[in-house]
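Why do we bother with holo predictions? Because pocket geometry can differ from the apo form. Keep that in mind while you read this record for D-MYO-inositol-1-phosphate.
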Amino acid sequence: SRSELDEIYDFAVQLGQDAGQMLLDAAKLRMGDGAASKEQKEHIEKENAVDLVTETDEDVEAYIKSQITSRYPSHKFIGEESYSKGSSRDYLIDDEPTWCIDPLDGTVNYIHLFPMFCVSIGFIHKSKAIIGVINAPFLNQSFSACSGRGAWLNGTQKLPLIRNPIPPMPENAPKGCVFSCEWGKDRRDVPDGNMHRKIESFVNMAAEIGGRHGRGGMVHGVRSLGSATLDLAYVAMGAFDIWWEGGCWEWDVAAGIAILQEAGGLVTTANPPTNHTNAPIEDVRLGSRLYLAIRPAGPSSTETGRKSQ
Ligand code: IPD
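The structure, written out:
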């Protein structure tokens, strides 16, 4: 029911704040301890030398999991660290209420003390991400959305913040856009795993679209934040016009998808369109590895006047 959903939303926002504080405290400890600065990173390699986990990822996930299971014992829980230590990825996204958590998205950023890291809390029902909370404590930014309640920055600023200057993809060419894409973690040199090739085609697309206008270079910039969920939040904000990544898991995107969709943006499981006039736009399917997000063109109309911090 509506009131149950609102209660879950409030709980998720509070959980995001508490977990964000844990991330901030842990990051400050790392900064304060001069001896344990960048050289001494307490991380462990997972599937390869760029797939990393820290104690902080594990502590924050354990905290979030305990809070959720004591408050909502019947809900399912999918957390990055519960599934990435060699265990089979045997979870299912189905009709059941399911929490989908990345305790620390942007782990590499956290290790290097680049401030783009956050906790990402998604709530999925009937296979759709309907609540999202992203708390980035170093940035003082908390994004939140619940289906029918609008998408918000710090509970007060409605998303998107930047409205309408550019027609949305794919109807029109994105003159003056900022694109974002991520390198992911796959470094295998196989056709499907070669990130360099994927990024190259994405960047080429940016260049090509500029070129269509005869002057070239009309895309303002290409960025790579190192946090897929923050990419989605920044698309919802309107700071990024397009984001694409070819290697995400559900916990990287569940919260961001809820926020972007509630802000009126579009997310699809597609490759970037090389011809922007006929890009396939299908409904996003959680469980895909590949996502393309397009920012909202203007203020969303779904909000019913209730904010959440
Ligand atoms: C990663 C980040 C990164 C993205 C990877 C993710 P993590 O998550 O979001 O930007 O490229 O696909 O796995 O490991 O920092 O939680």
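Residues 178-294 form a domain with the D-Maltodextrin-Binding Protein; domain 2 fold (CATH 3.40.190.80).
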